[in-house]
Q: What sequence folds into this?
């Protein structure tokens, strides 16, 4: 899908892409194709999460009176998803554990997405100017280009000074992906 627009449009497009990847995993028969779809799902979820942690949640903290509480809850959601993604890494797509883990992952991600789209995004649109939302969208797109592509549970606290570590890890992940053919 084409990405452009403010942060809400950008992240909503990501959400639909993730929905499509879950559908692809659920409706594809060959294990090799399911494995490729799961790898792409992991790449997209990790990049999306890092971008939200670097830009969306700090904006929530800054613009909402209850921003710290909301951001902390969203970060906890991300930690659970990242742990599930790490568990998924070594599983054979033909095995029953794969399907079970995909079901749990989908439930977690779907609940998180629903909460963001129904609660957080409307509040953000009210709290921020269109220009600020556009700037955040640009920052999110840039962050996703340099973000890690593999799960690293607990490796990146969401403080701004950890962005450099995230970008460095992203570079290493993309090099590993290139050499292994992952994500193609």
A:
């Amino acid at each position: 899908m084409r990405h452009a627009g403010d942060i809400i449009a950008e992240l909503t497009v990501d959400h639909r892409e993730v929905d499509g990847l879950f559908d692809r995993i659920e409706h594809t028969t060959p294990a090799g194709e399911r494995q490729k779809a799961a790898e792409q799902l992991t790449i997209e979820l990790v990049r999306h999460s890092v971008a939200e942690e670097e830009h969306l949640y700090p904006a929530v903290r800054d613009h909402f009176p209850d921003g710290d509480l909301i951001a902390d809850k969203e970060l906890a959601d991300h930690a659970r998803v990242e742990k599930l993604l790490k568990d998924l890494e070594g599983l054979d797509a033909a095995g029953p554990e794969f399907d079970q883990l995909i079901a749990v992952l989908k439930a977690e991600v779907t609940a998180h997405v629903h909460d963001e789209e129904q609660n957080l995004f409307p509040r953000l649109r009210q709290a921020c100017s269109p220009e600020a939302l556009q700037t955040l969208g640009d920052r999110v797109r840039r962050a996703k280009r340099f973000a890690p592509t593999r799960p690293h549970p607990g490796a990146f606290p969401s403080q701004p000074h950890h962005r450099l570590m995230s970008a460095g890890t992203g570079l290493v992940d993309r090099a590993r992906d290139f050499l292994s053919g992952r994500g193609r």
